Amino acid sequence: MARYRGFTLIELLVVIAIIAILAAILFPVFAQAREKARTTQCLSNSRQIGTAIQMYAQDYDEAIVPWYVGGGDYPTQPIWERFWLGRLWPYIKTEVNRPAEGQLFVQGGRPRGLYACPSWSADRYLKAVAEPDCYPGDLETIYRPFVNNIVELFSHYASVFQMELSVYGPDHCSALQNGVCSGTNQDPCYYFPGSFISRTQPQRNRTNYLANIRRPAETILTGDGISAASDVGGLRVWTSIGCESRYIHQDGSNFTFLDGHAKFIARNSERYLMTTRCGNQNVVVMKYYTYTAE
Questions:
Q1: Which tens digits make up the pLDDT trace of 102-156?
Q2: What residues does 263 pair with on adjacent strands?
Q3: Cβ neighbours for 290, distance < 8 A, ≥ 6 positions apart
């Protein structure tokens, strides 16, 4: 009579334990690999956006694409077309949500094609704005209602052009004199590197040009963030001030620079600061997100 040797209970438990240990070791590795692939895809999107920015500038006498075109002059134009992403669409031809005739947006619409980052999530976005150094004050309580009441999210990328909580003047010195920022490391003035068309403040109804930017290869134009419209106190549109991007990816974020190149910037504790002179005073100007000051 043949005899067959089976596993004992102890041997079976040992095998299960080994499998569990291997799974605990390998699953995080697989998760990191998936996130790395998402980050790479996002960076590819950013590079194509950078190319479109340069093409736009060449077609418009070196003008920097506006972050938004005010609706007062274009009341029936879909909102996505007013954003920077709509201005760049002819150069990208990616998928977008097109509202029905006479509608301004697609209710509940979410980014598609090159405007969608596979890593983006509202939780990661709100985690960043809750950081105490994201902006003077508690941005999380300000942004959460907007994020929770988005009528359409147009892009997981944002331009740096809307800094309406900061510089109200033609330059940093005017902003300092107007008392909207102290110009210190703790309360830096914010920089307008881009363009805005049709706002009440005359300095915003202007266009900056590539020649106006002293260091285009170090000036961020777009990055991980948000371009959206929300129904909070009426229909409103908004983009990023920069620091919201820090947790979109695992260790940092992707950014597109004014010269068209894009790269991943690792998260660090410093923002990219620039110092300029206003009379006899050095004024600290925040350019965007995190970049170690020189």
A1: 888 888 888 899 999 999 888 888 887 777 666 555 667 777 877 888 888 889 8
A2: 255
A3: 243, 246, 252, 265, 267, 268, 269, 270, 271, 272
Confirm whether 51 is domain-assigned: yes
Which is nearest to 161 in space by CA: 54, 56, 68, 265? 68
Domain that holds residue 126: 9-288
- Domain membership of residue 277 (yes or no) is yes
As a whole number of angstroms, the distance between CA 239 and CA 219 comes to 17
Whether the predicted model's global pTM rises above the 0.85 cut: no
Find the helix or strand (DSSP H, E) in which 238 lies.
strand 235-238
Residue with tokens 């590079």: 47
pLDDT for residue 216 = 76
Instruction: Give the CA distances from residue 274 to residues 129, 219, 265, 283, 294, in Å, rounded to whole numbers and listed in that order.
Output: 22, 11, 17, 8, 8
Length of the chain: 294
Q: Are 254 and 221 in contact (CB under 8 A)?
A: no
Residue 1 maps to a domain: no
Contact present, 289 and 271 (Cβ < 8 Å): yes
Q: How far apart, in whole angstroms, are the C-alpha atoms of residue 156 and residue 42?
A: 10
Q: Where are the beta strands (DSSP E) in 135-219?
A: 150-159, 189-190, 195-197
Determine the distance from the C-alpha atom of residue 94 to the mean position of all C-alpha atoms in its chain, rounded to a whole number: 18
Residues 246/266, Cβ–Cβ less than 8 Å: no
Q: List all residues 6 or more positions away from 81 whose beta carbon is below 8 Å from its beta carbon.
A: 87, 89
End-to-end CA distance of the chain: 83
How many domains does the chain divide into?
A: 1
